[in-house]
Design goal:
The N and C termini lie far apart (119 Å). Strand 6, helix 7 and strand 7 form a beta-alpha-beta unit. The protein has 14 helices and seven strands. The chain has 447 residues and is α/β, with parallel strands linked by helices. Helices cover 49% and strands 8% of the residues. The chain has a five-stranded mixed sheet with strand order 5-4-3-6-7. A two-stranded antiparallel ribbon has the order 1-2. Helix 4 packs across helix 13, helix 9 packs antiparallel against helix 10 and helix 10 packs antiparallel against helix 11.
Length: 447
C-alpha cells in the first residue's frame, strides 16, 4: 500500500469535513442574526408601547409598574403632635326621645329621680320614601265676551317627571359619576321608582337643551376673563377619537368635545380676539392662537425629574430648574415692579442653563422643548393673578376623566353635547359654592 496515497486521501476527507462544518456554522450564524434582529425589533416595539405607561406625563391611574409601592404608615394614625385637632360639629337634634324606667326590673321597687341623664346623639337617614305622584287638572275656559281661550298659567315640566327628580338625576350622573344603570338602581332602591335607561338619557338631554342658554352665558364670561387655564385630553365618541377640552378661571368652567385638537376649538370658545392670557401646556395650538401664554412649569419639571432618574448626572440641571421655579413662586408675592425687573434676569439664567444642557445629546430634546417656550415661562411675572402652572385646568378636567373611565365611550354627538353642557354648569356652580340642588332646579324651572 502506498503510504503517500493513503495520507493524501485522509487529508482530503478531513478538509471536506472542515469545509462542511464551516458551511454549517455560517448557515447557523446567518439564522441567529435573523433571530437577533427580529428580537431587537420586538424589544423596540415593546419599549415603545411601554412608554405609554412609563413617561413624565403618565397619570397615576395608568402607571402599571409603580416603582415606589405604597407602604403602611409608621407610628400612630391621625394628626401629628402640635396640629390643631379637628372635630366634627355636633348637629342640632330634630327630635328628642327620653328613655326612662319607673320600677326596678329586678325587684319591682319604684325608682326615684335619675342620678344623671347621659346625652347621646344619633344621626340617621329616613327610610326610603315612595315617589310623590301629583295629578294636575288644568281647566280650560272660553270667554263669552271676547271669545279668547283661557288656560291657567302653571309652570310644569314638559314630560311626566318633576324638577326634583330631574335635578337628582343630573347630580347622580355628573357629581356622583354614576352611569345610567346605576342611577336606575338607586332610584328603585330609595324611591321604588321604575324608570328605564332611555328615560334617564332623554331627561339628561332635555336638561342640557334647557340649560344651553346658561352655557352660552358662561362662554361669554370666559371670554371676558383676563386669564384662562386650558387643557385637552382624548375622548371616544361612537368609537371615534375626539378631544375633551376644558377652559376655566376657577369661577367659571367650560367643557367642550370636538373632533379636532387644533386652534379651531380655542377660536370657538374664546373667540378670535381674546386678549387675556392662556395658561397651558406645550401643545402647539395655543401659541398658534395667541402670543399671550404662560407655559406650565409643572409639566417641564415632571419631564426633568423623569430624566434625572435615568441619567443621574442630569440631577444638577433638574435642581437648578427647581430652584428657578421656587424663585418665581417667591417673586409672585412681591410688587409687580420688582417682578418685572427680575423677568429678564431669570430668562437669561434659563438660556445659559439650556446652552449647557444642549451640549449633552441625552438632554438635548428636553432643552429644545424648554427653549421653544421662550419667555412664555415667565409671563406670570409681568401680570397679576397669573399662575406659573396649569394645575387648575388639570384638576378641573380630572372629574370628567374619571367619568370617562367609568362610562367608556359616548354614544353620539348628541351625548357629547349633553355631557359638555351639564358637566360645565355643575362644575361652575360647585366652584361658586352654590347650593347645587336648588340652583339646578331653579334653572330648570326658568328654562
Amino acid at each position: 500500500m502506498d503510504w503517500k496515497k493513503s495520507t493524501s486521501g485522509v487529508d482530503s476527507m478531513s478538509s471536506f469535513a472542515v469545509y462542511k462544518r464551516l458551511e454549517q456554522l455560517e448557515t447557523e450564524n446567518i439564522e441567529l442574526k435573523k433571530q437577533l434582529l427580529a428580537a431587537l425589533k420586538k424589544i423596540a416595539e415593546l419599549e415603545q408601547r411601554l412608554l405609554a405607561y412609563e413617561n413624565a406625563h403618565t397619570p397615576p391611574s395608568k402607571q402599571r409598574f409603580k416603582k415606589n409601592p405604597p407602604t403602611e404608615p409608621k407610628g400612630k394614625l391621625g394628626a401629628k403632635v402640635g396640629h390643631e385637632k379637628w372635630e366634627r360639629e355636633q348637629p342640632t337634634p330634630t327630635e328628642t326621645i327620653e328613655h326612662t324606667e319607673t320600677h326596678c326590673p329586678k325587684c319591682n321597687h319604684q325608682l326615684d329621680k335619675p342620678l344623671k341623664v347621659v346625652r347621646k346623639i344619633v344621626e340617621d337617614i329616613p327610610e326610603p320614601t315612595p315617589v310623590i305622584v301629583t295629578e294636575h287638572l288644568i281647566s280650560h275656559y272660553k270667554c263669552k265676551h271676547c271669545g279668547k281661550n283661557i288656560v291657567p298659567k302653571v309652570k310644569l315640566p314638559q314630560g311626566s317627571f318633576g324638577y326634583n327628580l330631574q335635578t337628582e338625576i343630573a347630580l347622580l350622573n355628573v357629581d356622583s359619576r354614576l352611569p345610567l344603570r346605576k342611577i336606575k338602581s338607586i332610584l328603585k332602591r330609595t324611591h321604588n321608582l321604575e324608570i328605564t335607561d332611555a328615560h334617564i338619557y332623554k331627561m339628561l338631554h332635555t336638561m342640557s337643551n334647557k340649560l344651553s342658554c346658561e352655557y352660552e352665558k358662561n362662554i361669554q364670561l370666559i371670554r371676558a376673563s383676563p386669564f384662562v387655564h386650558a387643557d385637552e385630553t382624548g375622548m371616544s365618541v361612537d368609537g371615534k377619537n375626539y378631544y375633551l377640552w376644558v377652559f376655566t378661571n376657577g369661577v367659571t368652567t367650560i367643557f367642550t368635545i370636538t373632533k379636532t385638537r387644533s386652534k379651531k376649538t380655542i377660536n370657538e370658545i374664546l373667540g378670535e380676539n381674546y386678549s387675556g392670557i392662556i395658561i397651558c401646556d406645550g401643545w402647539s395650538a395655543y401659541p398658534n392662537y395667541t402670543p399671550h401664554i404662560q407655559r406650565c412649569w409643572a409639566h417641564i419639571l415632571r419631564e426633568a425629574k423623569y430624566l434625572a432618574k435615568d441619567f443621574p448626572l442630569f440631577k444638577t440641571f433638574y435642581e437648578r430648574l427647581c430652584k428657578m421655579f421656587a424663585q418665581i413662586k417667591k417673586l409672585l408675592q412681591q410688587p409687580i415692579k420688582k417682578r418685572k425687573s427680575a423677568h429678564d434676569l431669570l430668562f437669561e439664567q434659563l438660556t445659559k442653563l439650556l446652552d449647557c444642557m444642549e451640549s449633552h445629546k441625552e438632554y438635548k430634546k428636553l432643552a429644545t422643548k424648554i427653549r421653544n417656550g421662550g419667555k412664555h415661562w415667565f409671563t406670570c411675572l409681568l401680570h397679576p393673578n397669573i399662575q406659573p402652572t396649569n394645575n387648575l385646568a388639570e384638576q378641573t378636567i380630572r372629574e370628567p376623566i374619571i367619568r370617562r373611565k367609568i362610562f367608556g365611550c359616548l354614544d353620539n354627538q348628541k351625548g357629547a353635547q349633553t355631557f359638555s353642557i351639564n358637566t360645565s354648569l355643575i362644575t361652575t356652580w360647585k366652584q361658586q359654592k352654590l347650593d347645587l340642588f336648588q340652583t339646578i332646579k331653579q334653572n330648570l324651572q326658568n328654562g
